[in-house]
Amino acid sequence: MLAAAIAALMLTVAGCGSGGPEEGSGGAVIAVTTPVLGAVVKDAVGDAATVEVIMPNGADPHEWRPSAKDVARLEGADLIVQNGLGLESGLTRAIAQAREGGVPVFTATDHVDVRTVKAGEGADPTDADQATGAKDPHFWTDPTQMRSVVEALPAAVRSATGTDIATPSAATAARLTSLDERARTKLDAVPTSARGIVTGHESLGYLARRYNYRVVGAITPSLSSQGQLSAAHLAALEAAMKAAGVRVVFTEQGTSPQVASAIADSTGATVVELATEALPADGSYVTYIEDISRRIASALANTGGR
Ligand SMILES: [Zn+2]
User: Fold this and answer.
1) Distance 286 CA to ligand 1 centre (A)
2) Domain for residue 218, yes or no?
3) Amino acid 227: pLDDT
4) Rounded to the nearest whole angstrom, what is the distance from the C-alpha of residue 141 to the centroid of ligand 1?
5) What is the pLDDT of residues 66-120, one digit of tens each?
6) Residues 294 and 160 both lie in one domain
7) Residues 228 and 152 in one domain
8) Which of 63, 135, 272, 277 has its CA 20 to 30 A from that of 85?
């Protein structure tokens, strides 16, 4: 017991950690910003290091702010894994500070095929978030993009901590390949005419791109859940839904239930909750993708398209 504790302590010192808890069998501490990304990093790292997730599950990553203790956890890590592209806007300063203090930062979206807002696609071109070329941070709704991140992780973990995660990360990558195939099977069951998606904010662009769905609009016309609402936008959204025959509104963390039900009332749509930015009860990313693809497929197959 004592020997193990001393060994863990020494590994932590060797990995230059300065205060993270020494649980798990590995000494290195990897701090991950969001729960969804954290679940995958945990799987890819296995027992080789300790993974700490900074944001609580269910928090809205676009608006969550860290406590002094959370900032200390970031500063005490051997490696920080962040989503990037402005998703964790409340953590920007804390991560910059940790980086200045010598903590390496791995940015997941540096390793994905980033989706950008196309000309004419943004609902409000005066919003920086909606301008042509704005970059979408929600890559995790496409398991093949998540796999690209997992494939890039071993080199970063090795260089930051000296830890080898080649074996567990290869197993994770293989699981993501079969997860993608299962998601496609579910989502392929929806007829093309019923594949219009309306969400709380613009969170499903990567899923739509991967599985040939169409983002018709969002209640908050923004890549952030913190975008602004206007009566003109809601009227345009209702018109677009009617034109496209969209009969389902998917709501998420940060969606106003009052606004969602008002849109549902005036378009005859059904409101379906979708946890696009939180893990399911079992804490698994595999279950997360299976749940959202099943919920989307069953909601649209039953009520979407006309
Ligand atoms: Zn979001």
Assistant:
1) 19
2) yes
3) 78
4) 10
5) 999 999 999 999 999 999 999 999 999 999 999 999 999 999 999 999 999 876 5
6) no
7) no
8) 272
End position of a domain, from candidates 154, 177, 200: 177
Q: Are 109 and 17 within one domain?
A: yes
**227 C-alpha vs ligand 1 centroid, how far in Å?**
10
Q: Which pLDDT does position 11 carry in this prediction?
A: 39
Total number of domains in the chain = 2
List the alpha helices (DSSP H) in 78-142.
Answer: 92-100
Please state, as a whole number, how many other Cβ atoms lie within 10 Å of the Cβ of residue 158. 13
How is residue 264 written in tokens?
A: 């549902």
User: What pLDDT was estimated at residue 128?
Assistant: 60
Sign of the alpha-carbon torsion through 21, 26, 27, 28: negative
Name residues of the chain where pLDDT drops below 50.
Answer: 1-24, 304-306
Contact partners, residue 276, CB within 8 Å, separation at least 6? 138, 141, 199, 200, 203, 204, 250, 252, 253, 292
Domain of residue 229 covers 189-303
3-state helix, strand, coil in the chain (%, to 5): 50, 10, 40
Is 196 found in the same domain as 114? Answer: no
pTM metric for this prediction: 0.88
- What spacing in Å lies between the alpha carbon of 92 and ligand 1's midpoint? 16
